[in-house]
Amino acid sequence: MQPSLATPKSPALVAREREREREREMAVGGFAVDGGNVDGLGGRITLSVVITCFVAATCGLIFGYDIGISGGVTTMAPFLKKFFPSVLRKAAGAKTNMYCMYDSQVLTAFTSSLYIAGLASSLLASRLTAAFGRRNIMVVGGCTFFAGAAINGGAANIAMLILGRILLGLGVGFTNQATPVYLSEMAPPKWRGAFNTGFQFFIGIGVVSANCINYGTAKISWGWRLSLGLAVAPAAIMTLGALLIFDTPASLVERGRLTQAKQALLRVRGRDTNIEPELAELIRSSDIARAAKEEPFVTIFERQYRPHLVMSIAIPFFQQLTGINIIAFYAPVLFQSVGFGSDSALIAAIILGLVNLGSIVVSTSVVDRFGRRFLFIEGGVQMFLCQVAVASVLAATTGTSGTERISKGYSILVLVLMCIYAAGFGWSWGPLSWLIPSEIFPMKIRPTGQSISVAVNFAVTFVLSQTFLTMLCHFKYGAFLFYASWIALMTIFVVLFLPETKGVPLDSMNVVWERHWYWQRFVNKESY
């Protein structure tokens, strides 16, 4: 006899349907949810959460400004004459190989010293954000960066220059650790991707602003002081902004401030929203963390957190091996090397930054619709093709030795290809590399996981920034093939090992690992 529509399904039928659904999700490595309404947790956007996350995202300004300003300043003759005269002499004598014009370990030390300091402060920040809150560490980072900018603007010798860079690095380390976690914890699950990309958007604004300032100050004998010293402006903006916002409910619960946590939830979710399920989930996660009584840097190496640890290392490692930050640091130097004049090189760097900024806006609008995996894969393919194309153009026009000068037409083609490359990065590995590590960890190891991610980012950036100009000198156009090969590898990694996290509440994230074809063997249901 056929059962009626009202008859409950048998347990066996329900189990088979669930298994089929699981197989469909595993086939694409993904996880399907109802946009943020999982376990009763809402996905509503309020004016308060928009303003709060917008203000917090401005912390990206200081990192972006530094990325943009460094490369431009290192092409300014007055700056080089005062601090690095040997580079000027070498550039003047570089008639035979255009790739080696700016190969100087002292000059790259100026750029890369920031990242050693950032690495140290990002690891320290995991304890500080847990003890004092995400918002307070953002304020500390802004103040430290402000001091470093002031010292750099008034630098009289290389020692002051390096000291300023170290303080800038400490500030960036604090903010880069605290801000992505803040944004992921504050945003509604359904729109977490869009809110978190705000951090990368302001990094992009910082880069473009710095490039424009470099262009305006390049002809002034003391313009380099203005470029470096004006870093106090984004530091002041983000520090004052951070003072005006409140900490995340998760951080407040973690520190035992339940009344404040409830008020914060009411403000960001809406006074007429039932916040009790979300608050109860935060309290449950906090209780699990307290009951564990383990050192977070030990806990994160447990088998059940293997997938989280791998992603917190692999994602920032791969992001830097796209080559984007190296190109952003040295864009003016790079474009000057391939045939642009000094002014034209700075304009080309501005164009590259604007393209990257526009692509971040695209990412904001689609990341919660198409998911993280789609953008990673599409962006990876796009960047790979562009890097191979740039290498091919340079090989064909400058020769294998780099002794032939590239024509204006081919210089413009290189710029176009680099813009397409920057767009691919801007809507994929740029914002998503901050988003993924900040959303995959349970509360008890979330600050630690983000610290490891930021530290890896700084460590790889240090190595690459210290070696890029030398690599460009020796590899020539092959440097772009080097990055293309890494982009191919990271795209394959995403296809095979990164599950979809779109729309999943932070404290329910364990489900994506349980359902993944590979990572399910490591996790258990008590991880969160």
From TrEMBL:
Recorded coiled-coil stretches: none
KW Cytoplasm (keyword) present: no
MF (Gene Ontology): symporter activity
GO (cellular component) term, any one: membrane
Keyword Protease: no
Membrane topology category: Multi-pass membrane protein
Protein name listed in UniProt: Major facilitator superfamily (MFS) profile domain-containing protein
Organism this protein belongs to: Eucalyptus globulus
